[in-house]
Amino acid sequence: MSDLINDLVYLLWPAQALAVVEVNIGTNKAIFFAVAANILLFGIVGVLVAIVAKRRAFFIIMYFLLSGLVLYWALWGAGFSFAYINWLALAVALLLYAVPFFIIGSRMKWENRDSRDY
Known about the structure:
Layout: H1 2-12, H2 22-25, H3 27-52, H4 56-77, H5 87-107
């Protein structure tokens, strides 16, 4: 169970590795730095999705791109070996990442464009 929790924290809080600067700048500053970096990271991703995903297809593509990045992050953490990936943690993380996409996607008014407009 602790491996699941550790891997979930790793996958859901990608900037947590920045907290290792605690040795140099102190605990409170390191916590602030790691949390601020994570908020900034998710803010940038959110803005990119909002800019690019005006149509439902692009919105879905953005989720799959994010899922690919999370899979890459999991592979990097597992030493680029599929044998060491915690698949349950990865599945839970991808489901949790899907929640905001589902909520926003179900409330968006999509642009209706004919396929000839591409």
